[in-house]
Amino acid sequence: MRIILLGPPGAGKGTQGERLVKKYNLPHISTGDIFRAAIKEGTELGMKAKEYMDKGELVPDELVVGIVKERLMQPDCQDGYLLDGFPRTVTQAEALSAALGELNTPLTGVVNVDVNQDELLDRLTGRRVCKSCGSTYHVKFNASKVRNVCDKCGGELYQRVDDTVETVKQRLEVYRNQTEPLIAYYENKGLLFTVDGSKDIDEVFKEVTAILDAKK
Ligand code: AP5
Ligand code: MG
Ligand code: ZN
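^ thats the input. predicted complex w/ magnesium ion below
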């Protein structure tokens, strides 16, 4: 299966992605995670990406597209993958489509996780992420058993630098202007499936897996 998870910041792409890749045994390709790893390592890519991410802006298409194309050529992507947070602009979607056309590997589907804007702000400002394994929590909606400690690996939880109220508002605006048009883009291609992402995490997972099981 070759799947895209589409949705605004805080929709639950990462949360659902974590579970989906386990169930379907797919590599989880999150461009946000790739950039955060590069920032941590202090690479040139990381330094460039950080400039944009800290402001809640998108990293330029030409930087993102090359990285994803390279990633999709890796052997673990042969039998499918889950893309989380890519594509995010029509230019990125066109580039992906061209690359997949060359590889003769069409997309299975695009899952659009729909959540209203008010809830997104609460979700993002309360999010906590494990420093060691990257698992995602929420102080209210999905709390770890011990405060600031990861249930899965015991790692320390932290708050993303772009999860402040100001930056979240900017990210939501960027989503509306640059990413939301992809809903119509994929709908026109007959690839779009929309789920109600405002339900609880298990409910959303059930909806998504029902869609994907029918596509297998
Ligand atoms: P990225 O890391 O992709 O961030 P994002 O798209 O803003 O999305 P998030 O990761 O914030 O949200 P999510 O949907 O994964 O939600 P989560 O599951 O964590 O990108 C960061 C930055 O990198 C961008 O701003 C940009 O600068 C750059 N970038 C990345 N990709 C790019 C690209 N392709 N092009 C250009 N630039 C790019 O959930 C959020 C919270 O809600 C958590 O606390 C979770 O526990 C909770 N939660 C989840 N589901 C539920 C639920 N059903 N009910 C209640 N709470 C829930
Ligand atoms: Mg995410
Ligand atoms: Zn952990």
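The CA atoms of residues 140 and 153 lie 20 Å apart.
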